[in-house]
Amino acid sequence: MIRQLQLLLIGLLLFATSCKKATVQNGSSDSHLDSMVMLSRRDDIDREKRVAYADTLFNAVSDNRNDSLTRYYMREAVVSYYNLDEYDKSIHASKKVYDFGKRANDTLSMAKGLHFTGVSYYGKANNDSALYYYKDAEDLYVKFKGAEARSVGETILYKAYVYYDAGLFAMCESEAFKAQKYLRIDNKATDLYNCYNLIASSLDGQDDNDEAIKYYEMAFDVIDDFEKEGFSGGQIALNKASCFNNMGGVYVKMGQNKKAIEIYNQALTMPGVKEQSGLYAKLLNNLATAKYKSGDNSQLPELFYESLAIREELEKEAGIIASNVSLGEYFLYKKDTVKAISYLTTAYAKAKANKSNSDILSSLKLLTAIDKVNNDYYMRRYIKVNDSLQKIAQNTRDKFARIEFDTARITDEKEALAKKNSFIIGVSIVVVLFIAAIFIIYYLNSKNKELLLVQEQQKANEEIYELMFEQQGKIESARTEEKSRIAMELHDGILNNIYAVRLNLEFINKKADEESVLMRKGYIKELQSIESEIRGVSHDLSRNALFNQEQSFESMLGFMITSQKNTFDTEFEADIDPSIDWELMTNICKVNVYRIIQEALQNINKYSGASHAKVTVSHKDNNVIVTVADNGVGFVPEKAKGGIGLRNLKKRADALQGILQIKSQPGKGAVVEFSFPV
Hints:
This protein is mainly alpha-helical. The protein contains 23 helices and 5 strands. A 5-stranded mixed β-sheet has the order 1-2-3-5-4, covered by helices on one side. This is histidine kinase. InterPro entries: HATPase_C_sf (IPR036890), HATPase_dom (IPR003594), His_kinase_dom (IPR005467), Sensor_HK_TwoCompSys (IPR050482), Sig_transdc_His_kin-like_C (IPR004358), TPR-like_helical_dom_sf (IPR011990), TPR_rpt (IPR019734). TPR repeats lie at residues 241-274. It is an enzyme of class 2 (transferase). The chain crosses the membrane at residues 423-444.
């Protein structure tokens, strides 16, 4: 049953894979080839004609240019051959897919070719070859970063089915769990159902009944989600019935026959089950078995007979054998030895003809127990078949182990050879590049030095321009404030006073008495006061003539120093030697001087608590000496060496090839002094 489900599953998955249009180089498809694909899969067309359509499709693309479109239609031909049970043609086409993929460096096509080859060998019941190709396909899928997780999971799941068929249930369980991790990524209900169902079957094979029931129930729980993948209600019901059948078998093994009867009856009431004759016959036979084992003889042996009749009509040999074995067991339970021997003998003969080893063993075991006349014969046959099967199982395990080992060895050898070739090529390239690099590095170093110098100069120029714009903005702001203040002074004070004096003089001029003369003298004195006030405003305008002058670096420094503000109300004083010719210095030099003074002032603003700070810039013996002193709280220079600000001061002083000294003691202020040559 598991193998039949596996073949059906593979057909469905291959068909689903084929329905996904590949991304092709020319972005189009061939309508003629598309029609061949469709015709080769139509159930209403004669099988021979469908095979002919598949042949036409494969032959049409075999001689085409090796592009993604050709490889896509070649994979479609593989699917058509497989669905038609043309396994030899499917194998041939799958290997062609692999060859085309290898020539085009198309890892995904190579993996699919190996995958399809394994599937086709499994269809032929050639499990050794199937496992070999599944293993190679898995390795390629895992190495290819662009492979879908579902493709990897499907391949591993197919390996698990091979192990199940070989009776290697523990290995089957391990691979099925491994497949589940990949298939969970897409979280498709059918994929999860197949994983859970196979895990449950492998646990059943290991007689881990409780865990088997658990995973059958997990499989059952996802069946309703099949609807999202396009399954009809009838198909969903049949899957549920099949799952119930599996669970019932485990409950019978556990001796919970009444639970099994309940589940079998549920399965038989599912819509469409009766029309699925094979499944219906299986459920009837299993229900009958559970009934007599629970002591319920109602409808017996009629249920057994009905199941056998359906299977004989379907000509399903495996089912006929199973029914005869079940009838033999039933009549043995009823102590009707003659009928039991009759059915078991029939089961044994058919099992031998069908080469069904498990049925041969089960029928021989029962015949050995009840046929006293032929007991010795059946016993010898049972021992011989059992030993033979154990030997075959051991050989199978050894063969599968060799396949795993050989595949791993070949992969390791390929990787080692690839690494060796890569190493030789890599060393050769490194030697050539090293020789070339010696010449290139020398040339680039000289160019880089020149470029770095230009970049530094350009950066310094940009900083100077930014400083000038910044200072100009501050000056413009101050100028605007000063204009507003003078305008207010003129309007609110001087003009109002002049207007008042003028009115009073006009009034008094009309009189000539002594009192009026005295008042006129008073108003003249008031005019003198207004004159002094106007002179003061004029003085203020003269003092702020700086706003109308073009800015120099000296004035920028002075303005930056004296315009400092902090919460300590520190008075800042600037003393800059006017004899220093700043124009002879580079912009890099001026930017570093400006930033050093600025950083020192920032430290005063943050930490000093000083009432007075003075910046002195002097020129002596071809050196410029900058001193920033304050009368603040001071600090211990050794403790502050790790600070970012002091590190920046040192870095900028080094850039000027200068000497930086910091002198301070707690409570005695601080002095930052640096000098540099010009």
